[in-house]
Amino acid sequence: MSFGYITRRFRFCASHRYWVSDWSEERNQAVFGSRISKYGHGHNYTMDVTLKGEVNPVTGMVINLSEVKQIIGTVVNRFDHAFLNVDLPYFSKMQPTAENLSRIFWRLIEPGLPAGVFLHRVRLYTTESVFAEYFGDGAEAVFSKRFVFSATHRLHSDGLTDEKNREVYGKCNNEHGHGHNYEVIVSVKKPIDAVTGMTLPLKELERIVRDFLKTELQGKRLDMEVAYFRDKPATSENLIHFIRQGLEEKISAFLYRIKLKETNNNFFETGELFDEQ
Ligand SMILES: [Zn+2]
Ligand SMILES: [Zn+2]
To answer: Domain residues of the chain, as ranges?
Structure first.
């Protein structure tokens, strides 16, 4: 028997607000910004639920997708077009952050699964570039944001002859360089803070990563202006390690995964978990 993973996407629209009732308005404002409005603000949420289990030798399936749609769809339906803080019972004391929402979905979905089918991951997007993941790991969640920067490079190795460089790197060996709009997805893994409902607050993650990208990479010719690439080719495999090193100094043990997209056709990854989505 073989083991399989299956992911199904769900969507819902909802509003929410962040507000810690034990805090003053000023403190709420300082931590959550405009997201404290009592009227809430809205998102088109997208949730990818990954299930795992043995592939049934007769049906060839881990679980029938129509069954997945029915079990999880019933849960998701309660969140659709709701004001999460008010219309659902979970968020009177808990902030409806992406981290807490993915954890709540895990708790609600798990008991409804048939025997032999298990949750692997709940991934919840609040926007196309911000998402949280929960793996059933106590209070720990993964929080991710996608950033974009533009840089140019030439692929060239001092360890190869000019002829061999042209052969190995092709057009990328053009001595005048060429450029990309790189996308980098930075993920941190941390316990969800019991009060704020957050792992690393988005604003803090943005400040750290944007500072790094602006200082080290944005607008640069990598192989000429970034010292790290003086003795190694400015490939994405090397670039992702440069980014990881730079962010590790600032995010330390919380850095979980980095994904780098050079073009829409190729991406690179470093971290604990290989994940092709
Ligand atoms: Zn929001
Ligand atoms: Zn290139």
So the answer is: 1-136, 144-277
